Hints:
The chain is mainly beta and 698 residues long. It folds into three domains: 24-102, Roll (Nuclear Transport Factor 2, Chain: A), CATH 3.10.450; 117-225, Nuclear Transport Factor 2, Chain: A, CATH 3.10.450; 248-478 and 487-631, Copper amine oxidase, catalytic domain (Beta-galactosidase, Chain A, domain 5, Distorted Sandwich), CATH 2.70.98. 8% of the residues lie in helices and 37% in strands. The strands form seven sheets. It has a ten-stranded antiparallel sheet. Strands 10, 11, 12, 13, 14, 15, 25, 30 and 32 form a nine-stranded antiparallel sheet that branches. A four-stranded antiparallel sheet has the order 1-2-3-4. The protein is globular and about 80 Å long. 42% of the residues are buried. Homodimer. Its cofactor is Zn(2+); Cu cation; Mn(2+). One of its GO terms (molecular function) is copper ion binding.
Amino acid sequence: MQETTLATPPSALGVTHPLDMLTPAEISTARSVLADAGLLGPDTRFPRVLPVEPPKSVVLGHQEGADDFDRSLDVTLLDTDTGRTRRAVVSVTAREVRSIETLPTGEHPYGQAPYMFEEYDRAAELVKADPRWQEAMARRGIEDTRHTFVAPLAPGSFPREDETGRRVIRSLTFHRRFEGDNPWGHPVEGLIAHIDLTAGVVLRVEDDGDVPVPMADANYTPEFVGPARTTLKPLDIVQPEGPSFRVEGTRVTWENWTLRIGFNAQEGLVLNQVTFRDDSGEQPEDRSVLYRASVPEMVVPYGDTTNTRFWISYFDAGEYLLGKNANSLKLGCDCLGVIRYFDAFVADDEGHPMEIPHAVCMHEEDYGVLWKHTEFGEAPQVRRSRRLVVSYFATIGNYEYGFFWYFYLDGSIQVEAKATGIVFAGACEPGKPNRHANEIAPGVQAPVHQHLFCARLDVAVDGLQNSVQEENLVTLPMGEDNPYGNAFTWSRTDLTRESEAVRDANTETGRKWFVTNPHRRNAVGEPTAYHLIPMPGPRLLAAEGSSVRRRAQFATHHLWVTPFAEDERFPAGDMPNQHTGGGIGDWVAQDRDLTDTDVVLWHSFGPTHIPRTEDWPVMPVDYYGFWFKPYGFLDRNPALDLPDWSTAGGRCCGTEVGRADPAPAVAGPHAVTGHDHGADRSVDPGADRAPGTCGCEG
């Protein structure tokens, strides 16, 4: 590790822990250091600024209150007048540029920095000023284009002489009939513009669309939909004593869980140093589960063969930056209950701090029955489940993505991605069948596509020395060992090298993947473990040899396992924008050892979406995810000591308005009990919640 002389201690920059989120002072300092070094010109922009995470030894050895650790930023610089792209590492505590290199964006395998907000506006201005585009719009009878929306889109990676090695973007056009109209409902089919952002020119305008622009209303806001229904009664979440979690900086403690909240411009939400307290021994012990967890990449490939959309395959983290596009949850009802928000700071296009207020939401949710048993003639024993929810939403063009991490009282973790927003539509001839797109409204079609996410789990099950196994259920043939034919069992296979750990889910065998610690045993003598339970869905459906398959290698299998490497963070490669392909497939080609070492699990998951009429004009949430559950990690059910709310002061549920079951019944086999909420409906005055609202300001 490089020796560091701290010109500025971390605390002076608003930092108290090596894994804290970037602060505005750090972003401003990094810019000042680069300017002082003469590395910034009038046309220099900042497409991406990320924290440099310190070595694990530094983090794990950090003592609370210590103010002597280095903080560095990974800064990508783009000179917009020439296209020169540089990457610098800047120590904001030492106030020095540690390294800087010019990236070979004009050479194979190419690759460009993520797009910036200002480039979206620049692309639209160039397209709208182009006579070829204006003529194409006029041909469709659209003369007034003041409100027309030009959607800037990453072009993928295809061998075009006038695009290869350049910073280009493509655009499709969507018409607005008036200000505030939903443009996605009025696609201008077949009109594509190719823009060289560095030269500031429209390279080509392609127009092969003869389908009329659909003009039917596609708005979904109250002024267009009409009065809201009145039949749905309020559902208030009441925690009169406040939430059960405790927050100190970015460190969160909730019941047996402890974790640190992180956030950056590319990945969005990051969870660090996740531990679960084991109370079964003589002394409570905080046992590690995950060192770091995030969803660092996703790809949205389209199955449409038309010239308008064959090239579309968005890498929403690497091309657009999920975190930088995070929603401020300040004005919405994305979370329900007594809420704790975390603000985030990223760098804007000019390298200045940009605040995302309330970027991350945290709250508790009731989750039904956790465990229950009834013995005849005795009162039932029932304990309710609860989960801690940590989440954020990002908007990338027409789609919204919510990333939700759930922590349960039994030691389980659930990861859920939520896809909503507006499906990407094109115009069509009404009633004409299309093998690659569904007509979702008269004259409006939406192509089949996939949303394939990749979670990165830097596991630490009872420490960093872990091994990985695969489990499959096995049906046994009838015979001497199975005379009645009812027997089945399971098999475990060690995944000892990277080549063995490129795996796919199998619903027929209930396939799961185990992360074990061979150095620690549970009460029955087995290695402690957590296991990943997938929610199987199709892998990337694009054909072998396709461009998107080369670029989204992570999506071609459900599981990859690699030994930890500091420079292996983004599964599609560090800068997938216009890159010909790289990332995890190249890494595993090294075929490194995975036995008793620091390993990382990469799990690809997500829906394949054949759009339907019910998805229009705005799509109900589509849910997809996976579980990471203890398996022999604990010696028994860790939730035995939960309170019995049926006999505690806080009651479980009301039986009907104005009436409540006064006390729990002694239960027979079919007894039912009900319990009142209680009269106290006050709200913790320190929480971000107002009575009768979603728990958010506004």
